[in-house]
Design goal:
The chain has 305 residues and is mostly helical. It folds into 2 domains: 104 residues, no CATH class; 154 residues, no CATH class. The protein contains 11 helices and no strands. It is globular, with a radius of gyration of 22 Å. Keywords: Membrane, Transmembrane, Transmembrane helix.
Length: 305
C-alpha cells in the first residue's frame, strides 16, 4: 500500500486497525456494487447522486495531488520535508477516480434523460453571461484573505494575538527572498490570491475568451476541486480549535479570521467551479454527435436577434 493518507485529511492518519480495514473494504464493495447498478439499471434515478458522493470522497483523498503545483514555492523556501512521490501518486490515482466517477454520474443521468451523451443536450455554445456573478463572488471570497495577509505584511496585527513579529510568515520554512518580500509589504500567498482572482475574472469576462481555452479550464477545475474542500476543512478545523476542542497552533488567530478569511477559500472554490462550468458551456464548439444541433443553433440565433 502506498504511504500517505489514503482517505480524507490528516485526521484519518491516526485511524488504524481491523475496524478501519473492514470499514474501507465495505466502502469499496459498495462502490463496486453502485458501479454495477449504474451499468445494469440505466433508468434508475438514485445512482447518480450516490456516484457524486463517491466522487467527492475520492476528490478529498486526492487533495494533495490537486495542491501539488504549490510545491513550486519550495524553490523559494527552506527546511521543507522531502517530496513523498509514492503518496503523491496515490493521491493522483484518487483524483483520477474522482474524475471517472463524475463522468459515470453524468453519463448515467444523460442516458436517463435521453439527451446527447457527449454534450448533455447543449449542442451549441449557449449564452451564460448571467453567470458572470460567479466570477465576482469568487473574487469576493478571496478579498478578506488577501487584505488580511497584506495588512500583516505591512506590520498590522489585526486578528492576531500571538507574539510573532511576522504573523503571516514562518521564518523556519520561508526562504530569504520571501522574507525580504514580506518585509516590504508583499505576502506571496496574497499574490497567489490575486492571481486566483484574475483567473475567476478571465473565466467570466469577455477578455478571457481571447485566452487559450484548455489551460483556463484546467486551472479552473483544479482550483475549484482543491480550494472548495480545503476551505471547508479550514473552517471546521479552525472552529474546533477556536472552541478548544482540539489543540493546535491556531490559538493565536481570532475566530473571525478563520471564518471570514480562511473560510473564503471554500466560497472561492465553489464559485470558481460555477464560473468554470459556465465558461466551458459558453466556449463549447458545436457537437458533432448531437442531431439537433442545427435546429438549436437556429433557435438561439433567432432568440438573440
Amino acid at each position: 500500500m502506498c504511504p500517505g493518507y489514503a482517505f480524507g485529511y490528516a485526521a484519518g492518519g491516526s485511524w488504524r486497525g481491523t475496524a478501519a480495514e473492514w470499514t474501507l473494504a465495505v466502502a469499496y464493495a459498495l462502490a463496486a456494487l453502485l458501479a454495477y447498478v449504474m451499468l445494469r439499471m440505466p433508468g434508475t434515478r438514485w445512482p447518480p447522486p450516490a456516484a457524486w458522493g463517491v466522487a467527492l470522497l475520492a476528490l478529498m483523498s486526492g487533495f494533495g495531488f490537486l495542491f501539488s503545483p504549490a510545491h513550486a514555492l519550495d524553490l523559494l523556501s527552506r527546511n521543507q520535508p522531502p517530496m513523498d512521490w509514492a503518496a503523491w501518486a496515490n493521491s493522483g490515482v484518487a483524483t483520477l477516480g474522482a474524475v471517472l466517477w463524475a463522468c459515470a454520474a453524468l453519463a448515467h443521468r444523460r442516458h436517463r434523460l435521453a439527451v446527447c451523451g457527449h454534450c448533455g443536450g447543449l449542442g451549441h455554445r449557449t449564452a451564460v453571461e448571467r453567470h458572470t456573478r460567479a466570477g465576482y463572488l469568487a473574487v469576493a471570497g478571496l478579498v478578506p484573505y488577501a487584505t488580511l495577509k497584506t495588512a500583516w505584511a505591512l506590520g498590522a496585527h489585526v486578528g492576531y494575538n500571538g507574539h510573532k513579529q511576522r504573523p503571516g510568515m514562518d521564518e523556519y520554512y520561508a526562504g530569504d527572498a520571501l522574507i525580504r518580500l514580506y518585509d516590504h509589504g508583499v505576502d506571496i500567498t496574497a499574490v497567489l490570491a490575486l492571481i486566483g482572482m484574475l483567473l475567476a475574472l478571465a473565466l467570466t469576462l469577455p477578455w478571457g475568451r481571447r485566452l487559450p481555452r484548455w489551460p483556463l479550464l484546467g486551472l479552473g477545475w483544479t482550483g475549484a476541486g482543491a480550494l472548495a474542500p480545503f476551505g471547508f476543512y479550514l473552517l471546521v478545523y479552525g472552529a474546533l480549535v477556536w472552541a478548544g476542542v482540539v489543540d493546535n497552533g491556531m490559538e493565536a488567530i481570532d475566530g473571525w479570521v478563520v471564518v471570514v478569511a480562511y473560510g473564503g477559500f471554500s466560497v472561492y472554490g465553489l464559485a470558481l467551479g460555477r464560473a468554470t462550468r459556465a465558461y466551458q458551456q459558453a466556449t463549447r464548439r458545436s457537437c458533432a454527435h448531437c442531431p439537433g444541433d442545427t435546429t438549436r443553433t437556429d433557435l438561439l440565433s433567432s432568440t438573440a436577434s
